[in-house]
Design brief:
Layout (H helix, E strand, L loop, with lengths): L9 E2 L2 H5 L4 E5 L1 H16 L15 E6 H7 L5 H6 L2 E3 L1
Parallel strand pairs: 1-2, 3-4
Antiparallel strand pairs: 2-3
Amino acid sequence: MVAQHAVPAIYQFREFAAAGGLMSYGADLADGYRQVGIYAGRILKGAKPADLPVVQPTKYKLVINLKTARALGLTVPDKLLALADEVIE
């Protein structure tokens, strides 16, 4: 657990927050995989890859680990908790 070293950190992927990181904020991986499937389908139907638009992430997730915050002696503001997509207790 990251809290053992008393280093609060923000990560890109939810899994890091679930493993003990303070929080994560990054693109929703499930949505990214869905976009890859759509792209692959278009290519298999005959579209040229060079003609396809560049797609950037549109969904982002904020995950806060309250257990780690408590271990670090940090108080997470209620407004930030309200904005979080997931709160790990």
